[in-house]
Amino acid sequence: MSDPLVKISGLTKAFGDVEVLKGIDLEINTGQVVSLIGPSGSGKTTLLRCINYLVEYDDGSVLIDGQEIAHKDTGNGTRQPRSERELSAIRAQVGMVFQLFYLYPHLSAIENVTLGLTKVRKLPKAQAQSMAEAWLERVGLSDKMNNMPSELSGGQQQRVGIARAVAMEPKVLLLDEITSALDPELVGEVLAVVQSLAKEGMTMIVVTHEMTFARDVGNRVVFMDEGRVVADGLPSEVLDNPENERLRTFLSRLNPHLALEK
Amino acid sequence: MDYHFNFRYIWKHFDRLLDGLVLSLELAFISILIGIVIGLALALVHTDFGWKARSFVAVYVEGIRNVPLLLLVYLVFYGLPQAGGMEYSAQTSFIITLSLYSGAYLVEVFRSGFDAVPTGLIDAGKAIGLTPWQRLIYIRIPTMFRIVLPSLSNAFISLFKDTSIASVIAVPELTYGAQWINFNTFRIIEVYVVITPMYLVTGYAILIGLRQIENRYLKRS
Fold it and tell me: Fewest CB atoms within 10 A around its CB: which of A42, A72, A187, B1?
């Protein structure tokens, strides 16, 4: 079997006295869609942000396609922090979509997508333009390409956010509660886009509170609690037959009527 | 009241006032441009560098802000040439002073502007692989300007009014033009009755113009 695309080992992170990650080991293979669930404060968002080093972890390692993101080996066994330039180059291989979209407010929808293509991937303008158009069309926004973010609904903004991330052709895509800031009627359009990406084999790590989505889109569910991975397996295993007590409590809180049925 | 208004001499020398008004605008414009460069550079030094750089910026900002502008004008015009043996015209001297002055104010404006750029936007830049320099150019500076645009307009109008202080070193701007007419015609009240609305109308026109630009920029952006 080939090496995992994302290999997380012994990862720890503390904010001050608060230990948020207490030693995470996780391997994710190409094409896997991992739903990362857990109560708030369990460390799932922090873990996600460690994967592209938006959070500087304390100990352990994150390897993207065999490359350690925070350090490089100098050859004589010592580790040396990466330069900002190297870090940027690795980050370009990891896409991220944010809860609050964070589109660049001074750029139109299409400019939001082309920025990374021209400045990071150094593609010629015309090529970047047509790629961005193709992606925006793909997320159903061909008529909104030249609109500014402030002129778009939350769902539309988030779809631009997805287009911006996938246009970079990342090896893995990180989704951080991407529907939790949306009005309920706008959630569907965003999830549909993610679902179609999953079908095409995009490797994704999805932090979500939507259990139906976690089940439908994910082919693996990881449950975190208090900074540790508590359960990890197929959606049916983790969500339908929870063996772990804390996982059971978590699921029953989300879905009281299911708990009553059991 | 025994005083008889007589505007005849004012109209006779009105071109002096018009030229003065144009020069006032020029002085304010050049100074804010240089001030923006100073302010931007020092705001970045303050935000992105260590405490030594910070204290250097603080000394400059507080040093300028806590000395009256009139005194700064004198210091630069009379003091610097004597201390350094440099020579420059009154106009250049005033532009230097006003630029340093506006720079000190704009450092604070830009600094709070940079602080107000949401971290999430910078993270979004990191996430697509922009280098720190690219994040500065393509994300931090443009979003910062959107935030500070109204303060920038206000700063420009303040500077426009402050140009009247240049009259004390005989720069022929609007207030100096008024004083010239005073000394030569003794129509003191008339000339101030004329130049006050000139400042007021011009200042207000600039304000409306800048607000329009702001709205267009913020809408497009």
Answer: B1
Q: B120, A98: Cβ pair inside 8 Å?
A: yes
**Chain B hits for A148, Cβ within 8 Å:** 219-221
Q: What is the ipTM of this complex?
A: 0.92
Domain boundaries, position B67: 8-220
Report the chain B residue with the minimal C-alpha distance to residue A84.
Answer: B131
pLDDT for A262: 45
Residue boundaries of the structural domains of chain A: 30-53+90-261
The architecture of the domain spanning A30-53+90-261 is 3-Layer(aba) Sandwich (3.40)
Query: How does the average pLDDT of chain A come out, rounded?
Result: 92
- Residues of chain B contacting A88 with CB distance shorter than 8 Å: 126, 129-132
**Which positions in chain A have a beta carbon within 8 angstroms of at least one beta carbon in chain B?**
52, 54, 84-85, 88-96, 98, 100, 102-107, 115-116, 119-120, 148, 164-165, 168
How many C-beta atoms lie closer than 10 Å to residue B19's C-beta? Answer: 14
The token pair that represents A73 in the structure block: 């080996």
Supply the pTM of this predicted model: 0.89
Q: Are A54 and B127 in contact (CB under 8 A)?
A: yes
Q: Is residue B104 part of a domain?
A: yes
Per-residue pLDDT tens over the stretch A104-124: 999 999 999 999 999 999 999
Establish, for the pair of chains A and B, how many residue pairs have beta carbons separated by less than 8 Å: 77
Q: Would the CB atoms of B138 and A115 count as touching at under 8 Å?
A: yes
Distance CA B144, CA B10 (A): 45
CA dihedral over B81, B83, B85, B86, signed as positive or negative = negative
Nearest Cα residue in chain B from A109:
B221
Cα angle A13-A19-A21, degrees, rounded to a multiple of 5 = 50
Residue given tokens 């002073």 in the structure block: B97
pLDDT-derived band at B10 (thresholds 50, 70, 90) equals confident
Query: Which residues in B66-89 are b (16+ Cβ under 10 Å) and which e?
Result: eeeeeebbbebbeebeeeeeeeee
> Please, which pLDDT band fits residue B195 given cuts at 50, 70 and 90?
very high
Domain CATH code at residue B33: 1.10.3720.10
A155-180 in b/e form (b: 16+ CB < 10 A) is bbbbbbbbbbbbbbebbbbbbbbbbe
Residues of chain A contacting residue B220, judged by C-beta atoms under 8 Å apart: 148
A interface test, pick of B117, B128, B137, B144 with most A CB neighbours within 10 Å: B128
Number of structural domains chain B divides into: 1
Q: For residue range A9-25, what is the model confidence (pLDDT) as tens digits?
A: 999 999 999 999 999 99
The minimum CA-CA distance between B217 and chain A, rounded to whole Å, is: 9
